[in-house]
Write a structure and sequence with these properties.
The complex is a heterodimer of chains A (449) and B (262).
Chain A (H helix, E strand, L loop, with lengths): L1 E3 L6 H9 L28 E4 L12 H12 L3 H14 L15 H13 L5 E5 L7 H16 L4 E5 L3 H4 L6 E5 L3 E6 L1 H14 L21 E11 L5 E11 L3 E5 L6 H8 L10 E2 L16 H4 L3 E4 L12 H11 L4 H14 L15 H13 L5 E5 L7 H16 L3 E5 L3 H7 L2 E4 L10
Parallel strand pairs in A: 1-4, 1-5, 2-3, 3-4, 9-13, 9-14, 11-12, 12-13
Antiparallel strand pairs in A: 5-6, 7-8, 7-10
Helix pairs in contact in A: 2-3, 2-4, 3-4, 4-5, 10-11, 10-12
Chain B lengths: L18 H17 L3 H16 L5 H25 L6 E5 L2 E4 H26 L3 H10 L5 H31 L6 H29 L18 H24 L9
Antiparallel strand pairs in B: 1-2
Helix pairs in contact in B: 1-4, 1-8, 2-4, 2-8, 3-4, 5-6, 6-7
Classes of the chains: A alpha/beta (449), B mainly alpha (262).
Chain lengths: 449, 262
């Protein structure tokens, strides 16, 4: 069964309630009754298995086999039976690794399959997946989807998945339920019926429905002056080995460059190097087109000089948040530039309006939803009006509404003569925005099997 | 990224000994050497240990790197005590408050050798401990509560992510324009941000563990048996022998001083 709905409709809360991990009386109010197999879910642990979104916080132990065995141990399964189940579950999800393989070396897709194996070993009658592929690159999404497909094929358990990309799961489910905040269940039926009846409305609320792709704006910009260029550049993580060398890139005003390639190929490292945040392994970044009186190497610019020249948006928005409210968060950059109070307020209000953050100005950034956090982190970079914006996975895990708002905003910036560098796995985003694409090949350091 | 939980592995028998026995052995030798402060017991213990460490199974290079801090600590402690330790006997050298005497030299040698004699075997035994095996042992051999042992083990895994988070936070502050502020303020702000991130990660991990039945009232089983058999008993006996030899030698030589007394 596929559970759909706009963000904030209560999908994750419902799933956690089904899994019995919603917390006690003191953590919120509950009314009504929820029974799994005739008992309350927190009394029947093990009957329900839950896989969450973030791969990193689901790995529990250091070795692959121990991690799979963890649930069985807690349920008091006898030792011989545990090992039988461990092998069987690893087979089922297609994780062909030595039993004692360190979990720290797994890729995101492998970690999610490991979490699935750990849940399967508990032999649950109900399998719950909460956006299990939202943090994965396309190959990881395929791995996890196929593993789930194999698992539900040879078992007679119930399976419920939350996902805002309908396409990923539609072939595996035989029922779709649509939730709406305040209205409860608004549609319930076969995938075909529900998508025919609700498809358009779902697409408008941010769900990715195959027949209703988000609109893409027309681009009119023409390349302007050269802002930044690198020649024969080699990049490395600080203290690490060279990941890529002989890189040549030229970024002109009004153009967008997409940097693509598999995990571990150094895309994020290139972004940080171009943004003047980490030193290259060899060669220099020539940003004389952005310097406005400073030297040509952005690494030597002061932090406050950087914000009005190059804006960097990190993959995890939480790393960039500094203030206790959205309004203060947006004002950090303008204050560094010592703008007048009225000018700061004007910029904050304008950008908040543009990115649907006006209602949230008094809220703590850490409590925002994933889409809101992304829009805020893009806004914090834009508010100091840098001519070059470097973004790491700007559309990762976003619903279609946020996606099309971001694309429209970026197209506008490009038409106004700004330049963009986007590190991305999102093919639709590359099609919509990019003037050129740099594809990095897997680096020597990448640990993937 | 490798975490501190990446299994410690090697072919030598020492890697297969139950960590609980290693813990016990280290404690036995350590306590025995702390009972007296003299150089004879330290030399005897260190001598026995060096012979044993020779085939313990840690590569010389790895051992050298890890042992360096202990060597430095031993030398520093020795020099400090030689200069400022309790003076007695003939004076060899004096300058301001520093007085090098027979007594202080004696004490210095005893302290430096003692640090080595306690530190080096502890180092070798713990270099060959896999935290997961230690948790298994604490839970099954010593019957410590599983909730505590496994909880600590899972939390330990998160420390590997701290370093990555810290670096990202640092770069993010430069990108946001606030990295020119004073070092102390920046550090404090960044430490607070790391704390917030860690708590969020921890609570997510707790949910994942709870969803897999952790903390349920059912009796917990262990996938891997943690044995305390002959190799473990042998290691503890070796520890007892080394401790006994050191104490006996000191008493026979007449240098035994209980807790540093005369």
């Amino acid at each position: 069964m596929l559970l759909l709905g706009a963000s904030g409709a209560g999908k994750s809360t419902l799933l956690q309630a089904l899994a019995g991990v919603l917390g006690g009386e003191d953590e919120g109010d509950s009314t009504g009754e929820l029974l799994v197999d005739g008992t309350r879910p927190d009394r029947s642990r093990g009957r329900v298995g839950l896989v969450l979104q973030d791969p990193d916080s689901q790995v529990i132990l250091a070795r692959v086999c121990d991690d799979v065995a963890f649930g069985c141990e807690n349920l008091g399964v006898p030792r011989e039976e545990i090992w039988r189940r461990v092998r069987e579950s690893l087979d089922a999800v297609g994780l062909d690794l030595p039993l004692e393989f360190p979990t720290a070396l797994l890729s995101g897709g492998q970690k999610q399959r490991l979490a699935l194996a750990g849940v399967l070993a508990m032999r649950p009658g109900l399998l719950l997946l909460d956006e299990p592929t939202a943090n994965l690159d396309p190959s990881g999404v395929g791995e996890v989807r196929d593993a789930v497909g194999r698992v539900i094929e040879d078992r007679d358990s119930t399976f419920i998945v939350i996902e805002h990309r309908v396409e990923t799961w539609i072939d595996l489910v035989d029922r779709v339920i649509v939730l709406e905040a305040g209205a409860g269940i608004v549609a319930d039926g076969s995938p075909r019926e529900v998508l025919a009846g609700e498809g358009k409305r779902l697409a408008a609320s941010g769900v990715w429905v195959p027949r209703y792709p988000p609109s893409v704006p027309a681009r009119t910009s023409t390349p302007g002056s050269m802002l930044l260029q690198i020649h024969e550049l080699a990049i490395a993580r600080p203290g690490g080995q060279v990941i890529q060398d002989h890189l040549d890139v030229r970024i002109a005003a009004g153009t967008a460059l997409a940097v693509t390639g598999p995990n571990g190929s150094g895309k994020s490292t290139l972004g940080l190097t171009l943004g003047g945040l980490i030193p290259p392994a060899s060669g220099t970044v020539d940003a004389s087109g952005l310097a406005k009186g400073l030297g040509s190497d952005p690494l030597r610019w002061k932090s406050r000089e950087l914000v009005s020249r190059i804006g960097s948006v990190f993959q995890d928005p939480e790393h960039q948040f500094l203030a206790a409210t959205v309004r203060d968060e947006l004002a950090v950059g303008p204050r560094v530039l010592k703008l007048a109070g009225s000018e700061i307020d004007a910029r904050v209000d304008e950008l908040a309006q543009r990115l649907r953050l006006t209602e949230l100005l008094a809220v703590n950034p850490f409590t925002l939803s994933g889409g809101e956090k992304r829009r805020l982190s893009v806004a914090t970079a834009l508010i100091t009006r840098p001519p070059l914006l470097i973004m790491d996975e700007p559309t990762f895990g976003q619903d279609s509404r946020t996606w099309s708002e971001l694309v429209a905003l970026f197209a506008e910036l490009l038409d106004a003569g700004d330049a963009l560098v986007a590190i991305t796995h999102d093919a639709a985003f590359v099609d919509a925005i990019a003037d050129s694409e740099l594809t990095l090949s897997a680096g020597a350091e990448a640990v993937r099997r | 990224m490798t975490s501190i939980l990446t299994p410690a592995r090697g072919g030598q028998p020492i890697f297969r000994v139950n960590p609980v026995a290693k813990l016990a052995t280290t404690l036995i030798v350590g306590v025995a050497l702390l009972l007296s402060l003299d150089w004879v017991s330290a030399v005897v213990a260190l001598g026995c240990e060096l012979v044993l460490l020779f085939w313990a199974g840690v590569s010389a290079r790895r051992f050298g790197i890890r042992a360096l801090p202990i060597l430095v600590a031993a030398v520093l402690a020795g020099v400090t005590i030689a200069l400022y330790g309790r003076a007695s006997g003939a004076t060899h050298f004096a300058f301001l408050f520093a007085r090098v005497t027979d007594g202080s030299l004696d004490l210095a040698a005893a302290t430096a050798l003692r640090i080595l004699a306690i530190g080096l075997p502890a180092l070798v035994l713990f270099l060959t401990v896999d935290p997961t095996d230690l948790a298994d042992g604490l839970g099954q051999v010593l019957h410590l509560p599983a909730r505590f042992v496994i909880g600590a083990l899972a939390a330990l895994r998160l420390t590997g992510l701290f370093l990555d988070d810290w670096r990202s936070l640092e770069l993010a502050r430069r990108a946001r324009g606030t990295a020119d502020r004073g070092r102390v303020r920046r550090f404090a702000g960044q430490a607070f941000a790391l704390l917030v991130l860690s708590i969020r990660r921890g609570s997510k991990l707790a949910t994942a563990m709870e969803a897999r039945g952790f903390g349920a009232s059912t009796h917990r089983t262990w996938a891997r048996e943690s044995r305390f058999g002959w190799p473990e008993t042998l290691l503890v006996l070796i520890g007892l022998t080394v401790a006994a030899a050191a104490i006996t030698a000191a008493i026979l030589a007449g240098t035994w001083r209980f807790l540093g007394g005369q």
